[in-house]
Design goal:
- 81% of the residues lie in helices and 0% in strands.
- By secondary structure, the chain is mainly α.
- The chain has helices at residues 2-23, 29-159, 171-174, 178-186, 192-205, 211-223, 232-246, 251-266, 269-290, 296-302, 313-325, 329-337, 345-358, 360-380.
Length: 381
């Protein structure tokens, strides 16, 4: 603005001086005064313009300062707010950490106290439970003793006599508890007659629990020094026990009979004569039912020592079937050639039928010898 005004004054003064030079005429005082007045007016105007400009600049400065102050205050406010928020967050996290630590400590303390109380209560109840179990066991033992005595009293009338009247199948005998019968079999203070009769009842019931006590009883008989000549019934009952096992087709029976047979083959001859035939027949029966032929060579080796009686025909048939099933035709031949089929025509016919596939020449020769023997018998008579 000042530059504009200065240029304006310079533009006015220069033409005047140029006019003075050209005219070379002196100026009157009034004209000079007029010019001074105009200059004074222009200076006043310039001063007014400057004042206005200053006021505008001051206003702008004030406005700028106000905006700057507002901006600074806003920034300060935001920083203060952010600082307060951060402070609150930090203290909140610290407070939560403190509360968590206190809560965890209280929880572990409460848990340990609770666990201890529970443990004490469990120990207290467990002691009572153990005491109750002990009392129950005592009662159970007493009950089993009573059951055994009751079983013995019921069987007493049939102990010394064969069951010709079917007493073993009576409702009274069927109602006898199995535990009482098992305990009676294992009672070493009882005679073999009582123990055998209990086993006979369990055999009628087809109870597989019979296997273990009977095997134990058989081994105890072998261990005992018994004079078999003084008691025929004792010998018969002992052999019948082995026969019972042949009717119970379990793995336990198979393993028990194989061990018992090995014992008979390696120990005193007296027990071998007593038990061998029944043991071989029972083991053959169980082996056929369980499809186990790993003892076939051992059983074949026993054929020459078998003492087969007329009522053991079925056992001999099972043994022949056993040899056939496990591809041991030599065992079938030995049954024939050792005279075991004498007076047992059905067993002889079975053996010849089994050998027809394996050795037809042997069958033909056997029949020819048998026919010739029969002819000689008829001629001599």
């Amino acid at each position: 603005m000042k530059a504009f005004i200065a240029c304006l004054l310079f533009g006015m003064i220069v033409p005047l001086s140029f006019a003075q030079q050209n005219q070379n005429l002196p100026k009157p005082d009034s004209e000079i005064d007029t010019l001074k007045n105009r200059i004074s007016i222009l200076e006043n105007q310039l001063q007014a313009v400057e004042n206005v400009e200053k006021m505008e600049l001051a206003a702008k400065l004030s406005d700028a300062n106000a905006k700057l102050a507002n901006a600074e205050f806003g920034k300060f406010e935001r920083e203060l707010r952010d600082s307060n928020d951060q402070w609150l967050r930090n203290w909140s996290l610290l407070l939560l950490a403190i509360l968590s630590a206190i809560g965890a400590a209280l929880w572990f303390w409460f848990k340990s106290i609770t666990n201890q109380l529970i443990a004490d209560e469990v120990e207290k109840n467990l002691s009572g439970f153990k005491e109750a179990v002990g009392q129950v066991n005592i009662l159970q033992d007493q009950i089993r003793i009573l059951e055994k005595e009751h079983t013995a009293s019921v069987l007493e009338s049939s102990v010394h006599a064969p069951d010709t009247e079917g007493r073993l199948y009576s409702e009274t005998v069927k109602a006898l508890p199995d535990d009482g019968l098992l305990d009676l079999i294992g009672d070493k203070t009882r005679g073999l007659d009582f123990r055998y009769k209990a086993a006979e009842v369990l055999f009628v019931k087809k109870n597989p629990k019979l296997v273990s006590p009977v095997l134990e009883l058989l081994n105890s008989i072998v261990d005992a020094d018994v004079n078999w000549d003084d008691d025929d019934d004792l010998e018969w009952r002992s052999s019948r026990l082995v026969n019972f096992l042949g009717e119970l087709h379990t793995q336990e029976t198979y393993e028990g009979l194989t061990k018992f047979l090995n014992r008979l083959l390696t120990e005193d001859r007296k027990y071998k004569d007593l038990f061998l035939t029944w043991t071989v027949f029972s083991l053959a029966r169980v082996s056929v039912e369980l499809n186990k032929g790993d003892f076939v060579s051992v059983l074949r080796g026993t054929v020459t020592d078998l003492k087969v009686l007329y009522y053991q025909e079925d056992g001999l048939k099972v043994l022949a079937e056993y040899f056939h099933k496990f591809n041991e035709p030599g065992g079938v031949k030995e049954i024939l050639t050792n005279g075991l089929t004498d007076e047992m025509l059905d067993v002889e016919t079975q053996c010849l039928g089994l050998l027809q596939k394996h050795d037809p020449d042997f069958v033909t020769e056997w029949k020819a010898r048998k026919a010739a023997a029969n002819t000689e018998t008829e001629e001599s008579s």
